Each structure stands twice: as C-alpha cells, then as structure tokens.
UniProtKB/TrEMBL annotation:
This is Uncharacterized protein. Gene3D superfamilies: Cyclin-like. It comes from Ameca splendens. The lineage of its organism: Eukaryota, Metazoa, Chordata, Craniata, Vertebrata. It comes from the Eukaryota. Keywords: Cyclin.
C-alpha cells in the first residue's frame, strides 16, 4: 500500500487509515443481511468507493478511520435501501462504540461537499 511506504511523511491519522475497519464492518454487517439482498446490491463495492474518495480531501485528518468506515457503510446501505435488524443499539454503535449519529453525518457531509466541489470543477 502506498500509504505504508510513505508513512514517515504522513499524518498519524492517515497512517492509521487502513481498510481493515471497513473490511471488518462489511463482514459483520453481511452476516446480518439476507443473502439475496446482499448479492443484489453493490453495498460492499460502494462502501469501498466511498472510502477511497475520502482520501481526496482532508477527511482522513478530520475524522477517525473507524468513523469514516462506519459512515461509508452507512451511506452505502442507505443508498440501496438495505435495512439491518433492529436491536438495543444501532448497528453502527455495535461496530464502533464511540461513533455518534452526528459523527456519521459529519463524515457524510464532508464527503458530499467533496463531491460538490468536484462537480463544480468539471
């Protein structure tokens, strides 16, 4: 991975921005979703694309890797209307105890702002 090779010059938040969080979260969520619903929707692919897009701005410095991964998965699931079983806690709180709905919204807002900025450049 390029970030691993450049790690001495990168901010510590960027160094920790590894795909391991999203991979773990995807595997956990996949086990909760109907197999056919999961295979019909590109939730995993969309989550990975959203995560990659976060590298194009300052998001990986502003937010923790765990919060970005949860937000990417949250946005992907909501985009395709995939619902998860309801429990005592929200699914994202089970995956990452310190994330709040406000944290998720902040990451998504920053990501949408990045897309808006890109659209204005075209």
């Amino acid at each position: 991975m390029i970030s691993g090779q450049l790690s001495p010059s990168l901010h510590p938040s960027v160094q920790n921005m590894r795909p391991k969080y999203l991979l773990h979260y995807l595997l956990s969520v996949k086990s909760l979703v109907n197999r056919h619903a999961w295979s019909r929707t590109p939730v995993a692919e969309t989550s990975w694309a959203l995560l990659r897009d976060c590298y194009h701005g300052d998001m990986c410095i502003l937010h923790t890797p765990q919060h970005i991964a949860v937000a990417a998965l949250y946005l992907a699931l909501n985009s395709y209307g995939v619902e998860l079983p309801v429990g005592e806690k929200e699914w994202w709180q089970v995956l990452c105890e310190d994330v709040t709905k406000a944290d998720i919204n902040a990451v998504i807002s920053d990501l949408l702002r990045l897309y808006d900025m890109e659209a204005k450049c075209i």
